[in-house]
Design brief:
single chain, 8 helices, 58% helix, elongated
């Protein structure tokens, strides 16, 4: 190919509008790639909820799964990219309910962990799962099984003289009580 033909092929790209269009096209492609790779926590949570919907025992359980995240997590970090979620964000979402609603808080933590695992698996997040309990949140939050537990002394034994009173109160309003003579197998 003569050198003048090569020059003609190169010339329009180096002149004004085509060069600008080319650069703009590259920027657009990079933008699409970046947006495709970046997902918010809320987007990932909705994707997990949808993909796991067949596992729920009922529509009520399905609703509870996403509703707890909407109530306790989305206001704190639902709109953040999953890549930028830190241990501090997770603690900020869980701390207000950890002592008062321990069972709910542990389920919310498990759901956050599930969403972040989904994000890691799909390449939206790198690194460790900041919602994992062992070796992570267990050093920041008290153990769920010990939260709200009030240690009391054992109840005193019932004296023989009170057995009849307690039995009468227990069986009040019932016409018949039966005690099986032997265990049926």
């Amino acid at each position: 190919m003569p050198s003048s033909v090569l020059f003609l092929h190169r010339q329009p790209i180096c002149n004004g509008s085509l060069a600008d269009d080319f650069v703009e096209g590259l920027r657009h492609i990079a933008s699409i790639a970046e947006n495709a790779h970046s997902r918010t926590f809320k987007q990932c949570a909705e994707a997990v909820h949808k993909s796991k919907s067949v596992e729920y025992k009922s529509a009520k359980h399905s609703d509870q799964w996403i509703n707890t995240l909407q109530t306790y997590v989305f206001p704190v970090f639902g709109n953040l990219p999953v890549e930028s979620i830190t241990l501090g964000h997770v603690v900020r979402a869980l701390e207000p309910i950890w002592v008062e609603k321990t069972e709910t808080a542990t389920r919310v933590r498990q759901r956050i962990e599930s969403v972040l695992s989904y994000a890691i698996t799909h390449g939206y997040r790198s690194g460790s799962n900041v919602a994992a309990w062992k070796g992570n949140l267990d050093s920041v939050l008290p153990k769920p099984r010990l939260v709200g537990v009030v240690w009391k002394a054992n109840q005193p034994a019932l004296s023989c003289s009170n057995v009849e009173k307690v039995w009468d109160k227990t069986t009040e309003g019932q016409s018949r009580w039966t005690i099986p003579s032997r265990l049926q197998t």
